[in-house]
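Please predict the structure of the following assembly.
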Amino acid sequence: MKPPVKRAIGHFRVLVDHALRRREPSPEHVLQRMVMPLCNDLRQVLEEGTRNDAWEVLEGFSQECQRIAHVERS
Amino acid sequence: MVAYLTDIYVDSTPGGMSFEIPEVGIAEFLVLLARSLAIRQVSLSFQDNGHYTELTCTTNTLADLLRDVTSHLTDPSLIVEFDNATLYTGGGGCFSLSAALSPEKKAEIANAVLQAFGITLYLQREPFSVVLRDGKAEVYT
C-alpha cells in the first residue's frame, strides 16, 4: 500500500475514533488534526496516485466504517 | 515521566485505542507502547521535504532513534508500525492505535500510560475513557 493511501486511511481512522469519544474535541482540533491531514492525503492520491490507489482508499474507509458498525452510544 | 495534568486522553476503541499525549511526552509514550506491546521491531515512516522516509529499529534502540527524529514526532505524516499494530497520528500527540488487543491488554496499556504521567488508575476492562484536563480527571467506564 502506498504511503499516501495508508495515511489517508489512518487519518480517517483518527477522525472516526474522535467521533466515539465521550468528550467532544474542539472544532480546531478536528480541523487541524484530522480534516486538514486527510485533505492533504486525498489531494496527493488524486495528483500522484492511480485509480487503484483511489479505490484502495475507499476500501480502507469502508473497513473503518465496518469497524464501528455495532458501536452504541446513548 | 513528568506529570502533565492537562489534555491527556486515553480511550479504548473498537480494534484499538486512542490517545492525546502532550508533545513533550510523545517519545516516552512510544517507547512505553513498544514495551507494552512486547514487540521486537518498530518502523517509523514520515514525510520529510516531500520524500517518504522509513526507519526501522528494535524496541531496545527505539529511544535513541526517536531522539534523532524529534521534530517528526508531531508531524501528521508519521506512522509507527509495530510487529502487529499500527499507530496513526493527526500530529501534535493525537494518536490512534490499530491493534487486536484483549480488553485486559488495553486496560494494562492505559494504566501504564497514565502512570507515566503520574496518574494511578486501575482500569480492568473496556470500554473506558480517561480524560485529564485542567488538573481534573474524568473516568468513563
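Chain A touches chain B at residues 3, 6-7, 10-11, 13-14, 17-18, 20-23, 29, 32-34, 36-37, 40, 67-68, 70-71 (CB under 8 Å). The two ends of chain A are 37 Å apart (CA to CA).
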